[in-house]
Design goal:
- The structure is a single chain.
- The chain is an alpha/beta fold.
- It has a single domain, classed as 3-Layer(aba) Sandwich (Rossmann fold).
- Helices cover 42% and strands 22% of the residues.
- It has a seven-stranded mixed β-sheet, with helices on both faces.
- Strand 1, helix 1 and strand 2 form a beta-alpha-beta unit.
- It is globular.
- The relative contact order is 0.15.
Length: 237
C-alpha cells in the first residue's frame, strides 16, 4: 500500500531519499523501482528492517531490476544518525502519530533535509481516526499504538514553524477506512472474525490486482473518507 505520490516530489537522477519509519519497505521498493536514486529506509524496529530486506530482495528477484540503490538503517526518529542536509527528499508515512515527542521528531526530519528539498508526511486523517478511537478503547491503548490524532492545521503548522512551506495535500486509502471501523466495532483483537477477514481479503485482492473500478471508487471517496492525510512541504533555501 503506497501512500506517497512520488510523482509530486520532482525526484531527479542520483537524488538521496530517506524513508523514515520504512516498516516492511514498501516505499523503498517503489522508489527504487521507479527512480535512479539512492533510497535509505530507516526504522527503530529491527524486525521490520529484516522484513524490508526480504521484501526488497524478493522484488529484485521476481519484479525485475531496480533502477535505484537502497540501504537500511536502524534509527530513532528523535535522534537520526545522519548528517545535516544529507537528503534531497524525506518521507515519513504513518509514523508521527506514534511518537510521544513529535516536535523533536519533526526537527530531526527537517535537519537532515537539504535546503530546497521536499518533505512528505502522512498521518491518519482526523475524522476517520476519531471514529476508530470512539468505537474501540483497545485501538488507541495498544502498546506502541497511536498517541494522538492530528488535525490538518496542526501537522502543517508544526513543520511550517521550522521553516517548511506547504505545497499541497491530499487524502488516500478510502477503501481502508471501513475496514478499520469494522475492526474497531468488532474488536481489534478479533482478526479472524468473518466480516473482518472477508474485508481484509478484498483489500489484499485490490492491492494486488488494482482493478480500474476500485481505483475510481477510491479516488472519488478519498476527499470524503480517505484514511490518510498526506502533506507535501518544501524546505526554504
Amino acid at each position: 500500500m503506497i501512500t506517497i505520490d512520488y510523482k509530486r516530489l520532482g525526484i531527479r537522477r542520483q537524488d538521496r531519499i530517506l524513508d523514515m519509519g520504512c516498516g516492511p519497505g514498501r516505499h523503498v521498493s517503489r522508489a527504487c523501482a521507479d527512480f535512479d536514486a539512492t533510497v535509505i529506509g530507516a526504522d527503530l524496529s529491527v524486525d521490520d528492517l529484516e522484513k524490508a530486506k526480504t521484501n526488497i530482495r524478493a522484488h529484485e528477484e521476481y519484479g525485475g531490476a531496480l533502477k535505484g540503490r537502497w540501504g537500511l538503517s536502524a534509527a530513532d526518529i528523535t535522534a537520526l544518525p545522519f548528517a545535516d542536509h544529507a537528503f534531497d527528499h524525506v518521507i515519513c508515512s504513518e509514523v508521527m502519530e506514534h511518537i510521544p515527542d513529535d516536535r523533536q521528531a519533526a526537527r530531526e526530519l527537517f535537519r537532515v533535509l537539504r535546503p530546497g528539498g521536499t518533505l512528505t508526511v502522512s498521518v491518519p486523517r482526523y475524522v476517520p481516526e476519531k471514529i476508530c478511537w470512539t468505537l474501540s478503547a483497545a485501538y488507541c491503548n495498544t502498546e506502541g499504538g497511536h498517541v494522538r490524532i492530528y488535525k490538518k492545521r496542526q501537522i502543517t503548522r508544526m513543520f511550517e514553524k521550522l521553516g517548511a512551506r506547504k505545497r499541497f495535500s491530499h487524502h488516500a486509502h478510502s477503501l481502508h477506512t471501513p475496514y478499520w471501523w469494522l475492526k474497531c466495532l468488532i474488536g481489534p483483537e478479533k482478526e479472524t472474525a468473518a466480516p473482518v477477514s472477508l474485508y481484509h481479503r478484498f483489500l489484499t485482492w485490490d492491492i494486488m490486482k488494482k482493478p480500474t473500478i476500485t481505483r475510481r471508487i477510491d479516488s472519488v471517496c478519498n476527499p470524503l473518507i480517505g484514511k490518510s492525510l498526506v502533506v507535501y512541504f518544501r524546505k526554504g533555501m
